Amino acid sequence: MNDKMSQKNSRPLSLRVPEPSGRPGDAPDFSHLTMDPAGAVDRPEVSTAPYEMRDHAFRLIRVLDEDGNAVGPWNPRLDPETLRRGLKAMILTRAFDDRMHRAHRQGKTSFYMKCTGEEAIAVAQGMILSREDMGFPTYRQQGLLIARGYPLTAMMNQIYSNAEDPIKGRQLPIMYSAKDYGFFTISGNLGTQVPQAVGWAMASAYKGDDKIAISWIGDGATAEGDFHNALTFASVYRAPVILNIVNNQWAISSFQGIAGGLETTFASKAIGYGLPALRVDGNDFLAVWAATQWAEERARSNLGATVIELFTYRGAPHSTSDDPSRYRPGDEHEKWPLGDPIERLRQHLTLIGEWDDERHTAALKEAVEQVRAAGKESEAIGTLGQSRPSVKTMFEEVYATEDWRLVEQRREVGV
Q1: Structural domains in the chain?
Q2: Which of 24, 110, 233, 336 is most exposed, with the fewest beta carbons within 10 Å of its own?
Q3: How far apart are CA 88 and CA 320, in angstroms?
Q4: Minimal CA–CA distance to 216: which of 227, 206, 225?
Q5: What is the pLDDT of residue 3?
Q6: Angle between helical axes of 152-160 and 80-105 (0-180°, round to 10)
Q7: Is 228 exposed, middle or buried (0-12, 13-18, 19+ CB in 10 A)?
């Protein structure tokens, strides 16, 4: 045997397991984060080649500064009414979340997932894109439906799986489906949204249509093969799609470093596929709007896909089955350096004279009353186990033409 081959390592090898900056009992520490000041990142032309804007995958696009001013080249210069609509939709989304979380604690539903701290993402993007464009969301984009005026009662009926459930008990709670609102049926499998969105966008382009697609996944799902397969297709076929990575720092119990977030940014994963990437302050309504608008224009100009990393923080538990106090500092959300999206937009509107404490109090009250009214209507139909879709719906909408086996099974059940 070759002497060199027989030599052992000078020291034993060890495996690195990434650890977050804080665990329960520790003080929150965000000193490792590097973030550009508001207004510091340049806004490239939509037609810019991905190679020429690689640094945008490592910068952080911000519009709102610490005082609430909208600054820099990414300022979308939205009119006050649009800003107020966005703020009210975020407030309503949070009020809806709070009521449904309580409903779970009262035994009225088996499951719920809040989007506390992430409301600006779904609300802003839901307002920008048309209902005719197709969104492929995960389970934390309820703001899409709420911003577009989808009935709160219908959302609750789906959560309760009652007799008026729009999808007839075929999905877990919070896995909505609303084609007329540009909301593709939610899949609980991680990462599936990306290839679905890319395929839909490719079909739109193949038909010569003018509709684009948009998808959302979490930071952890970027480790799934589906994500990387989809980026290949999006790049090769120049699919008209916006691919969002919602980096909210935590999966159900593992932090974003487990998915590679300590090695590089999630936006930078686009570089290897020849796609443009933007990294955005996800708690800044104006920055989310501006970046999405840039990516939308690129897609509609037949220039292809854009990857957007939305840098935010999951303030609430992953779901009602999760207890974040077991794996992260208890007050970490309150110390998040990018603040709260509702408070930041409120501060901006107040600064420009288009909002005040009285209007904010009224908006909070209106949202709670709107959710309460929807809750009474939905709960009158029934909560979990009190009412359910008819058994016969199990056999409907399975095949375009009813299969003989379904006929036989319906006969056996007697419906």
Answers
A1: 50-384 (3.40.50.970)
A2: 24
A3: 25
A4: 227
A5: 58
A6: 20
A7: middle
pLDDT digits (tens, 9 = 90+) for 250-264: 998 899 999 999 999
Q: Are 132 and 211 in contact (CB under 8 A)?
A: yes
Give the tokens for residue 81. 């009414």
Strand-pairing partners, residue 76, are none
- List all residues 6 or more positions away from 312 whose beta carbon is below 8 Å from its beta carbon: 117, 118, 120, 121, 246, 247, 248, 249, 282, 283, 338, 341
Cα–Cα–Cα angle for 128, 132, 133, nearest 5°? Answer: 60
370/364 Cα distance (integer angstroms): 10
Give the torsion sign (CA, 9, 12, 13, 16). negative
What pLDDT does 42 receive? 98
- HEC readout, 369-413: HHHHHHHHHHHHHCCCCCCCCCHHHHHCCCCCCCCHHHHHHHHHH
Helix axes 341-351, 80-105, angle to 10 degrees: 150
Tell me how far apart the alpha carbons of residues 79 and 75 are, in angstroms, rounded to a whole number.
Answer: 12
State how far the alpha carbon of 16 is from the alpha carbons of 13, 258, 262, in Å: 10, 11, 12
Beta pairing, strands 306-311 & 134-136: unpaired
Side-chain-side CA neighbours of residue 259 (13 Å): 28
What's the pLDDT score for residue 387? 93
- Which residue's entry shows tokens 């933007």? 278
- With 0-12 / 13-18 / 19 or more C-beta atoms within 10 angstroms meaning exposed / middle / buried, residue 200 is buried
Per-residue pLDDT at 11: 87
Q: Which amino acid is at 49?
A: A
List, for the chain, all residue ranges whose pLDDT scores fall below the cut of 50. none
48, 68, 125 from 285: Cα distances, Å: 24, 11, 9
Report pLDDT for 367.
Answer: 98
Backbone φ and ψ of 394, nearest 5°: -60, -25
Rounded distance between C-alpha atoms, residue 337 and residue 247, angstroms: 15
Question: Which tokens belong to 128?
Answer: 């920008």
pLDDT at 329: 96
The pLDDT value recorded for residue 2 is: 58
CA angle 244, 247, 248 (to 5 degrees): 130
